[in-house]
Automatic annotation (TrEMBL):
Pfam families: Aconitase, Aconitase_C
Signal peptide stretch: none
Reactions catalysed: citrate = D-threo-isocitrate
Keyword Transmembrane helix: no
Keyword Lyase found: yes
Alphabetical list of Gene3D superfamilies matching this protein: 6.10.190.10, Aconitase, domain 3, Aconitase, domain 4
Organism of provenance: Cephaloticoccus capnophilus
Gene name of the encoded protein: acnA
UniProt GO MF annotations: 4 iron, 4 sulfur cluster binding; aconitate hydratase activity; metal ion binding
Full protein name: Aconitate hydratase
Cofactor: [4Fe-4S] cluster
InterPro entries linked: AcnA_IRP_Swivel (IPR044137), Acnase/IPM_dHydase_lsu_aba_1/3 (IPR015931), Acoase/IPM_deHydtase_lsu_aba (IPR001030), Aconitase/3IPM_dehydase_swvl (IPR015928), Aconitase/IRP2 (IPR006249), Aconitase_4Fe-4S_BS (IPR018136), Aconitase_4Fe-4S_dom (IPR036008), AconitaseA/IPMdHydase_ssu_swvl (IPR000573)
Length: 906
């Protein structure tokens, strides 16, 4: 042992060695060694043990104490959860929508340090950070061989300023790397390339690959046995700067999988079934761990599809342990044989090898699922957990048309359902109406990483073309693979021409439709939808279908497998029972049913050998710069401190460190607040955070117009996340958000009090700010569901909102609110804004808030009504952990971390 190794921490005498297949010895922190210290770790869930290894390795008495190690090593399945886990992750992944504002914040922190006369290099990521540019490509062009090149050209034109900024970040920060546009979706790139399974530090110590990412679907990597999940950009920045990711010790839900999928059932159907099942089991904020013979038999790509959907079932993770299948995948995707051999030896030495059987692990809750009971399914029309068996889709859609909005319906008159409109397209005529499929997109990380469903889509397209079928001209169809590997195997199997012929030409390598970058519809179709208020549909192989996410004028959105996307594009409507009704007529006038086109499992397996070729992965994931000339053409500024351009409409120095002081402001009661909005259940981060297209008449649109930006160059909110002036104006501006202060009408407006004047939320917030009036938001269940959008919290803070009072919160958004210095408060069971009869005319005080506030303590919301009546309602302070109290006192994570860094340097 070298001198440097001998001085390394050795908590509970766990520093040890393991031997790889070549006989070489390597260092590790041994989990089995904890048994000698009296901890029964054999019964712990595998995911808990991997987090425990991080605590052991980072146990320095400061960030991580021996008490924290002992507490997690003593994890009990049904204990009350009060302790926080200080999890130090190995690396961080970002996508560009969340990564650019994160880099903006780091640049602002450097500017703040520089202004104080200190070395700006004090602000430097302490763990490797990889940013994948995958959220910026939009489907402006589709249905042609030139679509890919044209969309990429437009992407670089629109985002040149952002990409210049990213290139500055690459040269300014030592540990910050960028995967340029046109390579793939962050989670598929992570799975196929970035993830290594094990890593080695400068002391030669091996340890598990762990991470957090600034995108909810970071959990996809759980399919590879890697512990990781999505956090807001705010938490990720703290992690980059050396802070542990703190979270409450979790419950772990064990999902025992048995049986096998039947003929005609896809991994997507399984993922949607698990999403529905686990949402009903209320797994929000919990780890989910899959085990049993059904889990062991699932191919890794199917495991990744299920893990990807963890945010949709609400879990922190959807974890599959490490076994032969993970080794097989690492080899198949180009990782070296020597690396895989060391990987296997490490996990065997840690007694973490193999998927457990029933009874081997103690879980907080056990859930059973027989895979043979899974049937073809879709999910929608507004939420990913609302699964519909395929034969029931027609009846479900027709009934939703006239069902009340409060019951996930559209609230239309049944008499208007049959209304249709004829539209003149460029080279064709089409009829559109309620239930018409107008967008059909094979897109998103969830399914485009899975060769079985992608090949099934290609085989279905082949059979359709051979029968002479075509896609309705009103349908905007597109294919956005998660990586270039997909294009390689679709080409090698000869399936690409058939997808092309049906309009599923490749439009780009990015998230596209799944994140709202579906691009414009034909103007005649837009006019017909808006003019007739049609409830038209999109079908996509994505993971999110919240209102106004896919396209602002498409109200009904269904998630499904890639082959079903092709099938519904052929049918042209969702009000059809594909199990019994023909989806089209062939060239001879004969009815064609879905069963005639659906590929068998054997047909898909015959094509699978082309999918995982190690040499293809090695070639496509080497030297990105030489493969991307457009990226090389982008110039970048240099230097350690960014030179802000006051005229930029993309990148601006945020106000978070204006008048920065080393002394925090403290914690005091909130007094005299007004309600900015009262919202119902399931308000998503898509509703709160600016996303999608920028309307010309919106506050953000007016700001851009006044800055001289042409409407055609507005780009999306996501692309402008580096400019707080635009993002604050777009917060709560979603066209589908319903403020109950206005009777539930759609749109981002509120009533300015006490006048009762109707104004856009931004304009009202500016008026309140000028008056010195703090704001609160009132909401129902699952507030902040959806993507880990840090701007949902940043924008809330910059509008002047001091507290959000909800019936319940989604995990990441609650954490992000605290991270921005906004107080989350939770109504007691049975209490809601509605039971209290709140209408927004009240004045609110938060009573009991002081410097000695404790995690999850009770406070009081004092309500003074317009007629002078006063009522106090108990609420729970959802500052959940002691470190969050510190964050809140400092006005958020970033000021807290900055003060820590400056304090250590002085």
């Amino acid at each position: 042992m070298t001198q440097s190794q001998s001085t390394l921490p050795n908590p509970f005498n766990t520093r040890s060695t393991f031997t790889d297949a070549s006989g070489a010895q390597h260092s590790l922190y041994s989990l089995p060694a904890l048994k000698a210290a009296g901890f029964a770790i054999d019964r712990l869930p595998v995911s808990i043990r991997i987090v425990l290894e991080s605590l052991l390795r980072n146990c320095d008495g400061k960030r991580v104490s021996e008490e924290a190690v002992a507490e997690l090593a003593s994890w009990a399945p049904k204990a009350t959860r009060t302790a926080e886990v200080p999890f130090v992750v190995a690396r961080i992944v970002l996508q560009d929508f969340t990564g650019v504002p994160l880099l903006v914040d780091l640049a602002a922190m450097r500017a703040a340090v520089h202004k104080l006369g200190l070395d700006p290099k004090l602000i430097e990521p302490l763990v490797p950070v990889d940013l994948v540019v995958d959220h910026s490509v939009q489907v402006d062009f589709a249905g042609s061989a030139e679509a890919l090149a044209k969309n990429l050209e437009l992407e670089f034109t629109r985002n040149r300023e952002r990409y210049q900024f990213l290139k500055w970040g690459m040269q300014a920060f030592d540990t910050f790397k960028v995967v340029p546009p046109g390579i793939g979706i962050v989670h598929q790139v992570n799975l196929e390339y970035l993830a290594q399974g094990i890593l080695k530090d400068t002391h030669g110590t091996y340890y598990p690959d762990t991470l957090v990412g600034t995108d909810s679907h970071t959990t996809m990597i759980n399919g590879l046995g890697v512990v990781g999940w999505g956090v807001g950009g705010i938490e990720a920045e703290a992690g980059m700067l050396g802070q542990p990711v703190y979270f409450l010790t979790p419950d772990v839900v064990g999902v025992h999988l048995t049986g096998a999928l039947s003929e005609g059932v896809t991994a997507t159907d399984l993922a949607l079934t698990i999403t529905e099942l686990l949402r009903a089991k209320k797994v929000v904020g919990k780890f989910v761990e899959f085990y049993g013979p059904g889990a062991r038999a699932l191919p890794l790509v199917d495991r990744a599809t299920i893990a990807n959907m963890a945010p949709e079932y609400g879990a922190t993770m959807g974890f599959f342990p490490i076994d032969e299948e993970t080794s097989l995948y690492l080899r198949g995707t180009g990782r070296s044989e020597a690396h895989v051999a060391t990987y296997e030896a490490y996990y065997k030495a840690q007694e973490l090898w193999g998927i457990p059987e029933k009874g081997q692990i103690d879980y907080s809750v056990d859930v059973e699922l027989d895979l043979s009971t899974v049937v073809p399914s879709v999910a929608g029309p507004k939420r990913p957990q609302d699964r519909i068996e395929l034969p029931a889709l027609k009846e479900n859609f027709v009934s939703a048309y006239s069902r009340p909005v409060a019951q996930s319906g559209f609230g239309k008159s049944a008499d208007s359902y049959a209304q249709r409109a004829s539209v003149e397209l460029d080279n064709a005529k089409a009829e559109v109406g309620n239930g018409s499929v107008l967008i059909a997109a094979i897109t998103s990380c969830t399914n485009t990483s899975n060769p079985s469903v992608m090949l099934a889509a290609g085989l279905l397209a082949k059979k359709a073309v051979e029968r002479g079928l075509s896609v309705n001209p009103a349908v905007k169809s597109s294919l956005a693979p998660g990586s270039r590997v997909v294009s390689d195997y679709l080409n090698k199997t000869g399936l690409t021409p058939y997808l092309d012929q049906l309009g599923f030409q490749t439009v780009g390598y990015g998230c596209t439709t799944c994140i709202g970058n579906s691009g414009p519809l034909h103007p005649a179709i837009e006019d017909a939808i808006v003019g007739n208020d049609f409830v038209a549909a999109s079908v996509l192989s994505g993971n999110r279908n919240f209102e106004a996410r896919v396209h602002q004028n498409i109200k009904s959105n269904f998630l499904m497998s890639p082959p079903l996307v092709v099938a519904f594009a052929l049918a042209g409507r969702v009000d059809i029972d594909l199990s019994r009704e023909p989806l089209a007529k062939d060239k001879d006038g004969r009815d064609v049913f879905l069963k005639d086109l659906w590929p068998t499992l054997e047909e898909v397996r015959d094509q699978m050998s082309a999918a995982l070729k190690p040499e293809v992965f090695k070639t496509l994931y080497t030297d990105f710069a030489s493969q991307n000339p457009k990226w090389n053409e982008i110039p970048s500024s240099t230097g350690n401190v960014y030179e802000w351009d006051s005229a930029s409409t993309y990148i601006q120095e945020p106000p978070f460190f204006t008048d920065f002081s080393q002394t925090p402001g403290g914690i005091t009661e909130i007094k005299g607040a007004r309600a900015m909005g009262i919202f119902g259940d399931s308000v998503t981060t898509d509703h709160i955070s600016p996303a999608g297209a920028i309307k010309k008449t919106s506050p953000a649109g007016q700001f851009l117009s006044e800055a001289g930006v042409e409407f055609a160059d507005f780009n999306s909110y996501g692309s402008r996340r580096g400019n707080d002036r635009i993002m604050t104006r777009g917060t709560f501006a979603n066209v589908r958000i319903k403020n109950l202060m206005l009777g539930g009408e759609e749109g981002g407006n509120t009533l300015l009090q006490p006048e009762g004047t109707k104004l856009p939320i931004y304009d009202a917030a500016e008026t309140y700010k000028a008056r010195g009036v703090p704001l609160i938001v009132l909401a129902g269940q699952e507030y902040g569901t959806g993507s880990s959008r840090d701007w949902a919290a940043k924008g809330t803070r910059l509008l002047g909102v001091r507290a959000v009072v909800a019936q319940s919160f989604e995990r990441i958004h609650r954490s992000n609110l605290v991270g921005m210095g906004v107080l989350p408060l939770q109504f007691k069971e049975g209490t809601t804004a509605q039971t209290l009869g709140l209408d927004g005319t009240e004045v609110y005080d938060v009573v009991g808030l002081s410097a000695d506030v404790k995690p999850q303590q009770d406070l009081a919301l004092r309500i003074t009504r317009a007629d002078g009546r006063v009522e106090e309602v108990p609420v729970t302070c959802r500052i959940d952990t002691p470190i969050e109290v510190d964050y809140y006192e400092h006005g958020g994570i970033l000021p807290y971390v900055l003060r820590q860094i400056i304090g250590a340097a002085q």
